[in-house]
TrEMBL record:
It is an enzyme of class 2 (transferase). This is GNAT family N-acetyltransferase. Its EC number is 2.3.-.-. It holds the Pfam family Acetyltransf_3. Keywords: Acyltransferase, Transferase. It comes from Glycomyces rhizosphaerae. The keyword Transport does not apply. GO terms for molecular function: acyltransferase activity. The keyword Signal does not apply. Residues 12-190 form the N-acetyltransferase domain. InterPro entries: Acyl_CoA_acyltransferase, GNAT_dom, Ribosomal_N-acetyltransferase.
Length: 220
């Protein structure tokens, strides 16, 4: 038996012109922790509802490892998250997550991501989100994808608008003693199809993977 016999989702590969997205092995986890330790964002803006980056570099890497392992270990067909590493030229450069709750019924998935700071501003954020959107709509047959970005996070908002998302209301979060506005974004299948700009190859998506993601006999 191999790892993919027990966890078929490890067979998944999403490929674009420049990127490969996959679940991380141990070497990938170390490389991702290195990216986190080196920095994820500038000092003047916190993009995360949980400020996990506010610590020393080694602790940022350690938190990354723990979070990734915990999310993978906690997957169930009813509620799951795939914390995919993003690979460019054989180098792990960041993380793109995609997840859902009761996907068979809701037909809705959500995404989140981060890139090592050195890789910002190169269009990679758009390309990696396009990869998981193709997986969500074309691979899993979802009707909607959602995302969110704090007010003032221009790059994330730009990716959402470029890919066809529409504003979907706001939420308030408290970070420290400050109220932060979180802008919600929603993408329908129709708007995704109208704004597709990246070709995506999905590999390893079979009945065993679909069952792990809550689709089971219902398929797509």
């Amino acid at each position: 038996m191999t790892l993919t016999d027990y966890l078929p989702v490890y067979r998944l590969r999403l490929r674009t012109d420049r990127l490969e997205l996959r679940l991380p092995d141990l070497d990938d986890l170390v490389a991702l922790a290195d990216q986190a330790a080196a920095g994820v964002h500038g000092p003047d803006f916190m993009p995360f509802a949980t400020p996990w980056t506010e610590c020393e570099p080694v602790e940022r890497g350690r938190r990354t490892l723990r979070w990734q392992m915990g999310v993978i270990a906690g997957m169930t067909p009813e509620k799951w998250m795939l914390p995919l590493v993003v690979v460019l030229d054989d180098q792990v450069i960041g993380m793109q997550e995609v997840g859902a709750k009761d996907l068979k019924v809701t037909r809705e998935a959500t995404t989140g991501s981060w890139l090592g700071f050195a890789h910002h501003g190169k269009g990679l954020g758009t390309e990696m989100r396009a990869a998981v959107l193709d997986f969500v709509f074309n691979g899993l047959g979802a009707d909607y994808a959602t995302s969110a970005s704090f007010e003032g996070n221009g790059p994330s908002e730009g990716v959402s608008r470029k890919l066809g998302y529409k504003a979907d209301g706001i939420e308030h979060h408290v970070l420290g003693d400050q109220r932060r506005v979180d802008n919600r974004w929603r993408l329908s299948r129709e708007d995704w199809e109208a704004n597709r700009k990246h070709e995506v190859a999905i590999e390893g998506l079979d009945d065993d993977v679909l069952a792990m993601l809550g689709l089971g006999d219902a398929g797509k």
